[in-house]
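Hi R.,

Here's the chain you asked about this morning:
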Amino acid sequence: MRYDKEHTRELIFPIGGIGTGSVGFAGNGMLKDWEIFNRPAKGSLNGCSHLALRMKTADGVRVKILNGDQEKDLMGQYGTHYDYDGYGYGPNSSTMAGYDHFSEWSFTGEFPMSELALSDPGFPAEVTVAAWNPMIPNDSENSSIPAAFFDLSVTNTGDVPADLTVAFTLRNPFPVSKNTLLPEGNGVFLKNAGVPEDSTDYGDLTLTAEGASVRCVADWYRGGWHDGAATYWREINSRAGLQPRSYGSNGAYDTCTVSAERHAEAGETVTFRFLMTWNVPNNYNYWNPLKDEAGKDIGWKNWYATRWADSRASNAYASGKRNELKARTLKFKEALFATTADPAVLDAASSTLSVLHTPTVLRLEDGSFYGWEGCREVDGSCEGSCTHVWNYAYALCYLFPDLERSMRDLDFKYNLQKSGAMRFRLTLPVGREGGWPMPCVDGQMGGVIKLYRDWKLCGDTEWLRKNWPAAKRSLEFAWSPENPLGWDADKDGVLEGRQHHTLDMELFGPSSWLQSLYMAALSAGAEMASFLGETASADEYRSLVEKASEWTENHLFNGSYYVQKLDLSDYAILDRYADAMSSLNSEDVRGTYWNPEVNELKYQIGEGCEIDQCLGEWHAVLSGLPPVFDPAHLNSALDAVMKNNYRASFRGFTNPWRNFILNDESGTMMCAYPEGARKPAIPVPYCEETMHGFEYAFAGLLLAKGHRADALKVVRGVRDRYDGRKRNPYNEIECGNNYARSMASFALLMIDSGFFFDLPNRTIGFDPQPDLLGTDFTSFWSLDGAWGTVRVRPDLSTEIRVLEGALRVSRIRVPYMPAPEAVLVNGEPVIYSFEDGMLVIDVNLSTKGAVDIRILRALV
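And the predicted structure, written out as tokens:
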């Protein structure tokens, strides 16, 4: 996760809170991708916003921009369409590439922390710039501050004393701008002075520096051409330095500079701290506007705007808690990176968390979490917390369970239709009618699984009771007479009919992929129904699972892997569902799904070896549900995907779809057709693609079933593509940038540790993969109310550390351990019992806060 020079070419690290938007900290130190305006803005710059270092000695003044070389778009950037900018004009002058800057640089990213190191053989100073935003598990408030924190260390490597000044320049991004000095004298408040504060165009920013020697220039010189930049550069390079200037009136895109000065003896290191906060409070549905009777957009406030009145308020709050916020964020980062895992696994699990700091995610006015699938260049990609995509995202549920539960609340409240069908995209503003009513099998079944998982993670049975009726209706929609799609119309446990799914079309026959999600959902439903006293429903669901399992193994396993069972030449299957679908979808089903040239159904898996064929088992492993597949068949299927879908090189391979992999890169494609398997003339969509979230889920299942070497091949294949030179390691793509499905990678950590959670029964546990036992193994864990680390020593003695929160458990499941010799809590022996790998301790841990639990094989 350290990137040198050429491997910073594509790197942009998003700095911002959850649901606040972000500013990109580029691999060479540039500030770009200014995505704080309630929508994406890839490639955007904000005038001459930058950081600079001024070094004054007895011999004179030298200034360098705190950037490395511009490695990208040296001909200019496509798509800007402006005079004197864009392709054919070279890099935009706002990149600061034409100013004196550093010749050596490297970037280290251990999300949520980043650090840029700068040096130059001809300049007597070395600089590190740490850029970050708080990310603290279980603290969604302090992890949702609209801010970018910058901590700088500057070492005087010369042999004479120097006065060092770091200057942070920030342009007011609004066409009618007003910059005002803060009364404390430590910064500038920049606002949009051209619109009222309830306008969706309104916004403000605050920039502050710490220390006694802060100097603020509220406004650069106002002139034409590059007058302001020329004046700034002349002044900062003079012995007198930057001169105060504040027009006190409205301008246009005015620029300010806030600087701080420190004296450094030869060899001494001094530090600087800056904080930029923003406030663009009024959001609305810009992609499909909803207007009131007066023609005004009906919108909502971003959650952060309900917490802080403006950027001055959030700046004051964050400044006051800065040391605490950084210490807690570092504690999380260090616990995460203490995990004993292959570097590629840690890289994937941590780097994809960056999605939570991008405009892919929003927090609505009441704090609820909402997600796009990803981001296009200037707008969101695929709205609505899409259930079949967010099914794969296993980071939020562990790190911020309250936000994950808010997604369940919104889904069951607003997406459930009278029939039990569920829309798989939430329309905004919430409560708005409309949206595509077609239900989606994997999204709908995933909702039931996630309700079970989230209940087990939090232990809040009243929350389960609130959502269970809706979840039950959505599960039983599979066989409901009101289901025109005929999913399980004969209630035999087999999914048939017309099945919409995450590959954006429909299957028309049973597949192990969707079947496994149905079986896992039935198992989850049975567990929840049983706990709530609905014994008849629980028995009904378990009976369906038994039927489904037997049928699946007998009819979908072909001796090597699982397939889809259908007759590709069966035109009549379209007739059965075409007319009945008119209430849900006006699509011409016959025209869409029939290929008259070869008399065959389109967009089916058929005999293909599909990467997600056992996806329900992955969810079951993570959620503590019973196995879905026959173990021998499952292992055979995993081997088959590695044999047929994984390629060490894609050179010579043809992919007519989106190109997420090229040339000699390795990866695992969506669906392969081994020799002898019939490939439809037009197979399942995205057939030849490699999509990272699917690859991570597959790797997780490989890991869970003991195929570590293969799992690491798959994960390394993905992360090798994101090396900073070819692609941005903090922006995995699929249907756009910062794609949510890639957070499937976080589950790899939980699978390796065998993390088990059952808070309704006050139980957690660990069961590391067998090949890890006997080593010195450490892993991060998190659930609702507490987070920390677990360490399993070579003798199997186990240490569970609660780093924050309170652990509401009395039982700890450690099936790999023989009976312990002692159990200590914070160093004190406690009374316990132990049977069949379950430890029961006679102490109320929930009153202890951060604790250290040691389960010892032998007394030391």
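The chain has a mean pLDDT of 96.

Let me know if you need anything else.
M.
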